[in-house]
Amino acid sequence: xxxxxxxxxxxxxxxxxxxxxxxxxxxxxxxxxxxxxxxxxxxxxxxxxxxxxxxxxxxxxxxxxxxxxxxxxxxxxxxxxxxxxxxxxxxxxxxxxxxxxxxxxxxxxxx
Length: 111
Description:
Elements: H1 19-27, E1 32-34, H2 38-43, E2 50-51, H3 54-59, E3 74-78, H4 81-93, E4 99-103, H5 104-110
Parallel strand pairs: 1-2, 1-3, 3-4
């Protein structure tokens, strides 16, 4: 079991998980929010994810498609850990409290 390499010490508020835990979350239909740019999404497609633009998440423009339950589990990932953390921070500002950040490589390994 390889842990998600994003260290909690980099942002202590970010929840980390192992690849096995991410796979279980995906199997349980927990939303994985794909914040990668369009070119990366096209080059490395992942099924069963919600494609979003980071700016739509930050601005709140996509709030209608997010779970109404602020305790709902969600996983965000981007082409860089920082992009995922930016998504995490936007969701936290909207009141979501059960969000994890995954590395793109960890999600690509599950497909």
